[in-house]
């Protein structure tokens, strides 16, 4: 349903994605109105004004919004919001910025989703394509707005990181290559607490795909495997695994060697050459490597890119070594599953900084790893009772801190030479910080001040 301009379009939410959608809509001849129930950042107001776009903040003028032919909604606005419910009742299409940009996009797309690892896999895939000299854009949950780039750029490929919320608003969009890193229970509050609803949401990445397209997925993920058994997938399959040999796709063998097979061609490299450490990062590297080889990027370029990649900020980011103690910032780990991956990749005794706003966390899945690798716990949150209860008896030393500075000071005292202090909170940050970036930045400042 590629609607044409001259009709009314309303953009709900004036953040990166909303402003980008508004710019593209205007270019395509729509009558555009931008409405944000909260405050609009000054930089975005300026951009809207420069583009001659009409906007409002702090309210939703219902008459204007309900007169739209189509509405582009920010992924942060839940379907339960009253204005969205009214739009659904009136059968006015409510779509995501990605869907809207897709109507006008002529480039091919590699679309990446999953509960964890999607940002790293997206950045890594983008890094390889860029290094190969492909004219490529980066968008979705990272980089600049996809819609804005479609309005202003002429890329041949895009690498898009897609959240389940973005996928929920996508209907006619089609990926050329889809990647599903894993599925673990996350954001269930937005899915009636039904795991199947969340799984269905992630699998929307496959909609409209044909036999010419490719689906890269984690063959070690039980939820994905169970779901694949129930579905007929049109796309060609390129799974990856850390445990089983695969004729097509990628795997790791007992000699710690990666093998990727695409179009009957083999690519191999040692797991020890990978820039990113830990099993989950091997999975991310396999997914990115398969996507790159499907584009027939030279083996040397893929090998080089997987060796020299520098990870995204706040994701297992090495900060500094102070008197032999390594400090690692994994502030982006806002759920238990992300933290599981972080702890799993620690190869030295670790002092673990954890805590914040808990999304209904079950810490029991971390018990074995914590017993095995963690020598002390520093709680960094307002209410730490659940963490203290979960790990009393598992770890001898548990202390509480109320600031990044205090947490780092404890870490420095509790860790010894050749040990690690890891900030991997497993929780959201809003009790003490603005967001996970601020938490990570204050942690890094405190480490550098030691």
Automatic annotation (TrEMBL):
- What are the UniProt keywords, alphabetically? ATP-binding, Cell cycle, Cell division, Cell shape, Cell wall biogenesis/degradation, Cytoplasm, Ligase, Nucleotide-binding, Peptidoglycan synthesis
Record carries keyword Amino-acid biosynthesis: no
Identify the Pfam families for this entry: Mur_ligase_C, Mur_ligase_M, MurD-like_N
Q: Name one GO molecular function term.
A: UDP-N-acetylmuramoylalanine-D-glutamate ligase activity
Which subcellular locations apply to this protein? Answer: Cytoplasm
Q: Which residues form the Mur ligase central domain?
A: 112-290
The pathway this protein participates in, as annotated, is:
Cell wall biogenesis; peptidoglycan biosynthesis
Tell me which InterPro entries the record gives: Mur-like_cat_sf (IPR036565), Mur_ligase_C (IPR004101), Mur_ligase_C_dom_sf (IPR036615), Mur_ligase_cen (IPR013221), MurD (IPR005762)
The record's EC number reads 6.3.2.9
- Class in the EC hierarchy, top level: ligase
Q: Which reaction does it catalyse?
A: UDP-N-acetyl-alpha-D-muramoyl-L-alanine + D-glutamate + ATP = UDP-N-acetyl-alpha-D-muramoyl-L-alanyl-D-glutamate + ADP + phosphate + H(+)
Q: Please give a single GO biological process term from the UniProt record.
A: cell division
Whether Cytoplasm counts among this entry's keywords is yes
Which Gene Ontology cellular component terms are annotated? cytoplasm
Chief localization = cytoplasm
Q: Where is the Mur ligase C-terminal domain?
A: 314-427
Q: List positions binding ATP.
A: 114-120
Function in brief = Cell wall formation. Catalyzes the addition of glutamate to the nucleotide precursor UDP-N-acetylmuramoyl-L-alanine (UMA).
Which HAMAP family would you find in this protein's record? Answer: MurD
Stated family: Belongs to the MurCDEF family.
Q: Please identify the protein, giving its name as recorded.
A: UDP-N-acetylmuramoylalanine--D-glutamate ligase
Q: What organism is this sequence from?
A: Taishania pollutisoli
């Amino acid at each position: 349903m590629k609607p044409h301009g001259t009709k009314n379009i309303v953009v709900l939410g004036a953040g990166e994605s909303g402003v980008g959608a508004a710019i593209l809509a205007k270019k395509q001849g729509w009558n555009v109105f931008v409405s944000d129930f909260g405050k609009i950042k000054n930089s975005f107001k300026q951009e809207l004004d420069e583009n001659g776009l009409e906007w409002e903040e702090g309210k939703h003028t219902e008459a204007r919004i309900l007169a739209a032919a189509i509405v582009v909604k920010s992924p942060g606005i839940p379907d339960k919001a009253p204005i969205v419910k009214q739009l659904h009742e009136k059968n006015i299409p409510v779509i995501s910025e990605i869907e809207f940009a897709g109507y006008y996009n002529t480039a091919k797309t590699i679309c990446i989703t999953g509960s964890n690892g999607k940002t790293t896999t997206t950045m890594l895939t983008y890094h390889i394509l860029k290094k190969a000299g492909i004219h490529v854009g980066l968008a979705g949950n990272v980089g600049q707005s996809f819609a804005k780039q479609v309005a202003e750029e002429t890329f041949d490929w895009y690498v898009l990181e897609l959240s389940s919320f973005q996928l929920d608003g996508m209907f006619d969009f089609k990926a050329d290559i889809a990647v599903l890193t894993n599925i673990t229970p996350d954001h269930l509050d937005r899915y009636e607490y039904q795991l199947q609803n969340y799984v269905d949401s992630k699998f929307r990445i496959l909609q409209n795909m044909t036999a010419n397209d490719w689906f890269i997925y984690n063959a070690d993920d039980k939820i994905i495997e169970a779901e694949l058994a129930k579905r007929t997938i049109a796309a060609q399959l390129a799974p990856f695994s850390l445990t089983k040999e695969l004729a097509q796709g990628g795997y790791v063998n007992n000699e710690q060697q990666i093998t990727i097979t695409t179009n009957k061609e083999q690519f191999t490299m040692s797991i020890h050459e990978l820039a990113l450490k830990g099993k989950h990062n091997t999975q991310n590297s396999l997914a990115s490597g398969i996507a790159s080889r499907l584009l027939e990027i030279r083996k040397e370029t893929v090998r080089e890119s997987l060796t020299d990649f520098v990870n995204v900020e706040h994701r297992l980011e090495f900060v500094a070594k102070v008197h032999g103690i390594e400090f690692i910032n994994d502030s982006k780990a806002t759920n238990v599953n992300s933290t599981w991956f972080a702890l799993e990749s620690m190869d030295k005794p670790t002092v673990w900084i954890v805590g914040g706003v808990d999304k209904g966390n079950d810490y029991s899945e971390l018990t074995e790893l914590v017993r095995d690798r963690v020598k002390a716990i520093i709680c960094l949150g307002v209410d730490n009772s659940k963490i203290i209860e979960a790990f009393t008896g598992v770890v001898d030393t548990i202390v509480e801190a109320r600031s990044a500075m205090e947490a780092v000071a404890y870490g420095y005292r509790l860790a010894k030479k050749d040990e690690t202090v890891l900030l991997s909170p497993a929780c959201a940050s809003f009790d003490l910080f603005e967001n996970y970036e601020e938490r990570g930045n204050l942690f890094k400042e405190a480490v550098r001040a030691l």
